[in-house]
Every structure is written in C-alpha cells, then in structure tokens.
Amino acid sequence: MTRTIRRAPVGLLGACAAAAVVVGLLSGCAGTPSGAALVGTWGSTAEKQPNLTIENDGAFSGTDGCNRLTGRGSIDGDSITFGPIASTMIACTGVDEWLGKAVTGTAKGNTMVVYDISGNQIGKLDKK
Q: What is the pLDDT of residues 69-118, one digit of tens each?
C-alpha cells in the first residue's frame, strides 16, 4: 500500500502564516484602546483631598484623601470601569472617602466624573 502525502504550496503556507500573525496582533489590541483621555493624574495632592493616577493599561493608584487606593481597571475610550479597589483601612475624620466607592469614571474634557455601583455620580476629579 502506498501513501501519498500532499503538501500545501510554499506560497500558500507563507500567506497563511502571515495572516495568522496579523490576526494574533490585532486580537491583542482589541479592547485595549490608548485611553489617552484617562491616562494621567486626577484630583488634588492637597491634604485630605482625593487623587488618582491612571496608567495606559488600566492600573490605578491614589488616595481617597485618607486611605491609599490601588487596583486595575478596564479602559474603553474615555471611560474606565474600576476593578476591585484595594485600600488601606485608616480611620479618618473630616474626609469624604467617596473615591473608594468608585465603579466607573468618564473623562469629560479635563474633568473625570465618577459613579458608584448604582450609577449615581459620587464625585469629580480635575486632571492635573
């Protein structure tokens, strides 16, 4: 019994390999917009004031005016959905700790409007 092994033409293999590489590169970019509107520092660095620094990959860190905050969110254009927020647990007086309750934020010019789990606006941060 004789077996015949058929091979694809070399040109076709090269084209398929190139297409696979392009698809892989494009899928790696899907859902990862530049986030230029959100990247940077928001809020005030003054004592007892909230601030947040957002990186291009969605990582964020800052303070609610008392407790340190950190986490990773998902950026989609001019909006961010904050992932779980890790926070220190210092008891503070005279500080509104609203930023620790953030679920989403939307950049509107030089202001980020921040919303809670119910979609209610809980605060605003100006871009620095």
A: 999 999 999 999 999 999 999 999 999 999 999 999 999 999 999 999 99
Tokens 């969110």, located at residue: 73
Q: Which of 35, 40, 37, 41 is nearest to 57 (CA)?
A: 35
User: Residues 6 or more apart from 108 whose CB is under 8 A from it?
Assistant: 78
Determine the residue type at 60: F
Q: Quick one: which of 7, 119, 116, 113 has its CA closest to 52?
A: 113
Task: Note whether 40 and 54 are within 8 A (CB).
Answer: yes
In eight-state DSSP terms, residue 127 is: B
Please state, in angstroms and rounded to a whole number, the distance separating the CA atoms of residues 125 and 104.
13
Both structure tokens of 35? 């986030």
pTM of the model: 0.72
How far is Cα 44 from Cα 55, in angstroms, rounded to an integer? 17
- Cα dihedral value 16, 18, 22, 27, nearest 10: 50
pLDDT at 35 (0 to 100) = 72
